[in-house]
Structures are given as C-alpha cells and as structure tokens.
Design a protein that fits this description.
Mal/L-sulf/L-lact_DH-like_NADP, Malate/L-lactate_DH-like, alpha+beta, 7-stranded mixed β-sheet, 10 helices, oxidoreductase, 3-stranded antiparallel β-sheet, Ribosomal Protein S8, Chain: A, domain 1, 355 residues, Ldh family oxidoreductase, 36% helix, globular
C-alpha cells in the first residue's frame, strides 16, 4: 500500500468497527455499519462516509443514540411496512428497510418501507443501488438530521437538506443512481470544507442579511439555499411528509440537530422503495430500453467548453473496483481526525505515519 495516506478498505472497516465497539455497539452491528460507512467512501460519497464517525461516536457517548437497538417491524401490509429503529445507528434501520422493500417488491411488485426513530444513515445511494443491481427501480428519501433552511420567504430554520435518491438498472456496469439534497449543497460538503480550512463557493449559503456567506466556520450565522427557489422548498416539504409525518417521525421544529445535541433522540424519519418492472409487463426489456436512451444522451455532442454527457452513476462501478483493490486515499484533515478518534477509543491510529 503506498505511503500517501492510502488505507486498505478492509483495514479501514476494521478500525471503524472497533471504534464503534468501543462505544458498546455489538460486533455484528458495528461490522454492518462500518461496511456501509466505508462503502460510501468507496463510491465517492466522502461527505457521508467515515468522515461522519466523529459525530456518531459523540452521539453514542452522549446517550443520544442507542448502541444496542432492537429494530422491529411496527406496521406491515403485503406491500408496505414501518420499521422502528429504536434510536440505533441509522444504517441498521435503513439497511433493514431496504432489504424488506426489495423482498416485498418481489412478492407484490412494489415495496414501500418507512423508518421512524432512526438516525443519520449516510448517503441514500447506499439504500437504492442494490435495487438497481437486482433489476428493480429504487427510491429513498429522508428528513435531514438538522434544520438549516427556512420555509421559502421565511427566516425560521424549519427544514433540513431533506435528500432524495433514485436508481434503475441501465443494462451496463453502472446502474442509474441519482442522490441529491434539496439544497444547493449538502451540509456535509460545508463541514468537510471547514475541516480542510477551505471557503464555500458563493450561492451555497446566505447570512440573515441576505448577503453571500462563504466562511464555513460561520455556517450557523446563515442558512442553506434550496435548489430552484420555491420549487426546492416544495420538494423538501413533500419529502418531509413522506419520510417524516407519515412515519410518525420528526419534521419541522421537532427535528433535533444531531451534531449540536448528542443527548436527545432524533427520531429521524426515512423511506425506502423498491419497484419491480415485471409488475408493468416488462422485465429485462426495461434495462435494455434505458440503455438505448442513455446511449442517445451520451452521444449528444457537448456544448463548447463542456465535458461529454454523463448520466448519474456513470463511472461509479469502476471507481469502486479500483478503490477496493488499491485502497482509499483520505485527505490529511480526515486522517488526523481518525487518528485523534483512535486515541479516544484506545485504538492504534489507522495512519501511524501521520500520528
């Protein structure tokens, strides 16, 4: 392994799992969460991968997150279910919801599974990509883990980044995977810029005076901007209804800032869906038609100064394969943070050269 801050995927998984176990998370659960956290980095979602370990450990230490949850099905029909996450690590409840949605789609053509009493669970892409790899369509959405956005035209912070993701088979190595926040930028990107000492671009946040805010250290002085103005606001509200209110989970002023408050349960709400094309009279033909349309789009001549057309998800499989083989190269600030966490967990630093 090159000595440039690159770490073997298995070694990183083991470190993250051990850090979680040091906070009373059972070995099996710690392994599941660690694998999903590292998967986020493998597929390029660095703002929602091992970068989040400090936040998760803080909530476990503060009592805001249950290290030993009893995840259960609180409500169920043939095609729907509601998962109670028992305030455990969010990855556990969301992985349960995803797997149950896929199972129900196989039986009923569609599976729609909500989550209540959950927690932050990393990028939604983790919970829609498996559907596409199984020949299904996927969707997932979540109420953000802190409120950083006012209602359109207002000034009270009552909405989060409220992300949504979609997936579909595309007949090739890379399924269609589209994962986005309903804000111009996710708060995770701002936190990584803060960690690295870099400014934000204009247009991500504004202060309460309406002027651009570019210093990530001053993020609490302003608010994130929704995509598309009022349209992004409306989409964020719709997600809050589906992932929050429908599941008996937090929305609006009930949302707990999971970074600032490490003591209170967040009751984070999420939803995962799986849809089988066979329910509409098509099977493999769906992916074949998607491939044909996507090829047309990629063949569209780019505008001057633009790169060739790409579809969401393009290149992710090759990127993941390379990183599984060659390891993950983490930025210096994150390496230092993981080494510091190791000391607090009585573990050997994962990056001894930089300790």
């Amino acid at each position: 392994m090159p000595d440039d801050g690159t770490i073997d995927v298995g070694t990183l998984c083991e470190f993250v799992a051990c850090a979680l176990m040091s906070h009373d998370v059972p070995e099996a659960d710690a392994g599941k969460v660690a694998t999903l956290m590292v998967e986020a980095d493998i597929y390029g979602y660095e703002t929602h991968g091992v970068f989040r370990l400090r936040q998760y450990l803080a909530r476990l230490a503060g009592g805001g997150c249950n290290p030993r949850p009893d995840i259960s099905v609180a409500q169920e029909t043939v095609a729907t279910a509601l998962i109670d996450g028992d305030n455990g690590l969010g990855h556990l409840a969301m992985a349960t919801a995803r797997d149950l949605a896929i199972q129900k789609a196989g039986a009923a053509g569609i599976g729609w599974v909500g989550v209540r009493r959950g927690n932050h669970a990393g990028p939604l892409a983790l919970y829609v990509r498996p559907q596409a790899e199984a020949g299904l369509l996927g969707m997932a959405a979540a109420v953000g883990s802190a409120n950083h956005v006012p209602p359109y035209g207002g000034s009270d912070l009552l909405l989060g980044t409220n992300p949504i993701a979609f997936s579909a088979p595309s007949g090739g190595d890379d399924p269609f995977v589209f994962d986005m926040a309903t804000t111009v930028a996710a708060m995770g990107k701002i936190k990584t810029l803060l960690q690295q000492g870099r400014p934000m671009p204009e247009g991500w946040m504004v202060g309460r005076d309406g002027k651009p805010l570019t210093d990530p250290a001053r993020k609490s002085e302003g608010f994130l901007l929704p995509i598309g103005g009022a349209k992004g606001f409306g989409l964020s509200v719709a997600i809050g209804l589906m992932a929050g209110v429908l599941n008996g989970a937090a929305f609006g002023s009930d949302v707990v800032d999971f970074t600032k408050d490490t003591i209170s349960p967040t009751n984070t709400g999420q939803v995962v869906m799986a849809l089988d094309p066979k329910a509409f009279g098509v099977g493999d033909e769906f992916a074949e038609e998607v491939a044909r349309v996507f090829d047309e789009m990629r063949a569209s001549p780019p505008l001057p100064g633009h790169d060739p057309v790409r579809l969401p998800g393009d290149g992710k499989s090759a990127l993941a394969a390379t990183r599984r083989t060659e390891g993950l190269t983490l930025n210096p600030a994150l390496r230092a943070d993981l080494n510091a966490l190791a000391i607090g967990c009585n573990l050997a630093p994962p990056f001894p050269k930089y300790a």
